[in-house]
Write a structure and sequence with these properties.
Layout (H helix, E strand, L loop, with lengths): L8 H9 L9 H10 L7 H14 L10 H31 L6 H30 L2 H10 L7 H11 L8 H7 L4 E2 L2 E2 L2 E2 L3 E2 L5 H6 L1 H9 L5 H12 L2 H22 L5 H13 L2
Antiparallel strand pairs: 1-4, 2-3
Length: 280
């Protein structure tokens, strides 16, 4: 079946609990596979046939449900991002309103009240995230070790873990990078070479949660992230491209620490991760 938001989960859970082999694929993967088979139309019958062919012809991994702790974290971290986005919208509206010529006390106080309420709810969700992590001793132990990376907060780490199901189905750095949409998309044909950029065909929530940590580690000149930022910026003269490179490196570091169940040691991981990044 296709991973259609959260709507596939009830059926997948039912089949899994009744000893069926369940395979869940991303909609984009199913879409391009159908095109490769020559299907030009799209309907339920064609989609079912395409998924059946895919299951027969490809060595796809079986689906495994999230643990209760991971499900709880996913609900909380997604709510946290939604609240943060709403807060940003109201702050921008308030800033634009305050800059206008005519103003209304009702509008201004309403926007300020909404922002204050969201601040309270965001704090409550952050506390709930920490409680959910502590409720699972094994999970909390691993997260604490990753939290030794300065600039990565508990909520950021929890989001990455929740969106990847604790990296359960990932066997390589390349898979993790691709899942988050940090893999490089090329546009080359013959002698013509187009621009290279990240595909962004992956989990946008991971990219969104790593946005601020990347700024933090660069701002406070934390190595090796600040060095990577400088190298990419000097080469491209694009700040956002350099920050994206830092985000990617942070994700790789989280994956490595999680898989090895180790704390962050800059001297140990600096050279090793640089080699892994440049080789992929």
């Amino acid at each position: 079946m296709e991973a259609t938001g959260v709507y596939y989960e009830s059926l997948a859970w039912y089949l899994f609990q009744n000893q069926f082999s369940v395979i869940v694929v991303l909609p984009n993967k199913a879409k391009y596979y159908l095109k490769s088979l020559g299907f030009k139309s799209k309907n339920d019958k064609i989609d079912a046939k395409g998924l059946a062919y895919m299951a027969i012809q490809q060595n796809l991994k079986l689906w495994k449900p999230f643990s209760e702790s991971i499900y709880q974290l996913r609900h909380l971290t997604r709510l946290h991002q939604q609240l943060q986005e709403s807060r940003t919208i109201f702050r921008n509206q308030l800033h634009a309103y305050d800059s206008g010529h005519m103003q209304s006390d009702v509008v201004q106080s309403t926007l300020q009240g909404l922002i204050s309420e969201l601040d309270t709810k965001i704090k409550e969700v952050n506390e709930a995230v920490e409680e959910a992590l502590k409720a699972d001793p094994a999970l909390w132990e691993k997260v604490q070790k990753i939290n030794t990376v300065k600039g990565l907060g508990l909520t950021s780490i929890a989001t990455i873990i929740a969106e990847t199901n604790g990296f359960e189905l990932f066997n390589s750095l390349a898979q993790v990078v691709s899942y988050a949409g940090y893999d490089v998309s090329e546009n080359q044909s013959g002698s013509r070479t187009g621009n290279q950029r990240i595909s962004k065909k992956g989990n946008s929530r991971i990219r969104r949660i790593l946005f601020l940590p990347a700024f933090s580690v660069v701002r406070y000149n934390l190595k090796p992230f600040s060095d990577l930022y400088e190298r990419v910026y000097e080469r491209s003269r694009l700040k956002m491209k350099a920050y994206v490179a830092v985000q990617r490196k942070l994700l790789i570091l989280v994956y490595t620490l999680w898989k090895r169940n180790e704390e962050y040691d800059p001297g140990k991981y600096l050279k090793k991760i640089d080699i892994l990044i440049t080789s992929r």
